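Record 1 of the preview.
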Amino acid sequence: MYNVQLSEFWKQRCLKETIHNAPYLFDDENESADVASVVSSRAPSQLSTTSTVTQQKVEELTRKLEEERKKRVEVEQMLASFQDGGKS
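->
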């Protein structure tokens, strides 16, 4: 009996989740057009803002990476000069 109850519980829970996650259906075509136009008008600005911010972050990280490479090369040259100086 317990398995039957548990099975029924999961069946009801899945049904509730499916209903909850179902896409919102509009009753009137005009309402859907209005909402769609609002969404489409906002999307490009959000996309461009996001891509601009991302591009700025990438450029900043690229600059930092180049600085770290320069520092590494300097340290490697200093190390090589010390090793050469110790062998002579």
